[in-house]
Amino acid sequence: MTRFLSRLFRKAARAGVIAFATATFTAPAFADDKPAILIQGTETSRITANGDGTFRYELKLPAEGYETLKATVPDAAVLLRKLGLTNQESIVSGVKGEWLDDKSTLRIDFTARGVARVGRGGAWGLPMVDGVETKLVEFKNGVATLSQSMPIPGVDGIVTSDIRMTLPDGATEVRISRDKSRLTYNLPVPSTNGKVAKGRQEIDAKRDVMASLVKVLSNRKFGTLWTTAPVGLWRTTYRVNDVFVTQTTGIEANGDIASRAEAANGFVLIRKGTLVMKGKMMHIALTDGTSHSGVVEMNGNDEFTFDDDDGPSLVYKRVK
Question: How far apart, in whole angstroms, are the C-alpha atoms of residue 273 and residue 257?
């Protein structure tokens, strides 16, 4: 049962649909050590090389429960629309529902764009499991066979699910992730037939993106998550004894830093080094052997404050 379908099933349980459909069943129909209700699910899916997927799920209900549910909601598509088959991790479309009277089964079809994605180590991951123990039975001829079972909320019963998932050509190292939340697999690197591979990206840069995050950055809880150096060319002015100094500092994305401090009396000092961000703490190591550390507070996109315990608090304004 994919994460889509397990969520849909739980919505149905919370809405009372499953309990209503199986209300005519009682425990004496089964042995004491068996659940009163048994619902069998079969999932057939196919994942493409770009991570899109097509899914078909058949939910076999007890005969009496099936008839009760269908009589209440004759149009399966209406039932699915009321419950909703959505997911924030991918785009769901083409949702269809159908009653199969000869099998006492509800059939659900849909497609999902971007359901599988590349993760750590280049492995692809599919959100297969949603609080349900899943067993990978086998992977053969490009098809992964899995089995699942889960309790039915609010009802003395279980739902079982047998899954046959066709993975993209060349898929290897198919397994359930350590945290039991995803089915992962590796794909071979596409061949270029000896030609140089080329790619093109179009990036729409937003100058005021940091300003749009000012509310987030001002939240104290965000401090430990802030790990990005303020890249750009910055300028600040401070006073040493009775002499005013203007310092211009350039910070690169790789952590390289270079500064030029020019005093009003004509003295110029140029220094280079590297910096590392840890939370809001900026650690600067200069090539002359000195180092500085201080707290950085971003004030929108064009200004930040550097508070050094060994010196004055400096306000840097963006030059470019």
Answer: 5
Locate 230 and state its tokens: 């303020």
Displacement of CA 88 from its chain's centroid (Å) = 9
Residues with Cβ within 8 Å of residue 112, at least 6 apart in sequence: 4, 52, 53, 55, 87, 90, 91, 92, 93
- For residue 119, CA distances in Å to 2, 122, 127, 182, 186 come to 18, 6, 12, 11, 10
For 107, other C-beta atoms within 10 Å of its C-beta total: 16
Strand 157-166 and strand 37-47: the pairing is parallel
CA 22 and chain centroid, separation: 36
Domains and CATH numbers, the chain: 3-186 (no CATH), 221-318 (2.40.128.280)
CA distances from 33 to 23, 29, 37, 157 (A): 20, 12, 12, 11
Task: Write the CB contacts of 248 (distance below 8 Å, at least 6 apart in sequence).
Answer: 233, 234, 235, 259, 260, 262, 319
Pairwise CA distance, residues 79 & 17, whole Å: 10
| DSSP state at residue 312 | -
Neighbours of 103 (CB within 10 A): 13
Closest CA to 130 of 58, 181, 83: 181
Per-residue confidence in pLDDT tens, the chain, 320 aa: 455 555 555 545 444 444 444 444 333 333 445 555 677 888 899 999 989 999 998 888 888 778 877 887 788 777 766 655 555 566 778 888 888 999 888 888 888 888 888 887 788 988 875 566 788 999 999 999 998 877 765 566 777 888 899 999 999 999 988 877 788 999 987 666 766 656 676 766 655 555 555 555 555 555 445 556 788 899 998 887 778 889 999 988 778 899 998 988 888 888 898 888 777 778 888 888 777 788 888 777 788 888 775 566 788 989 87
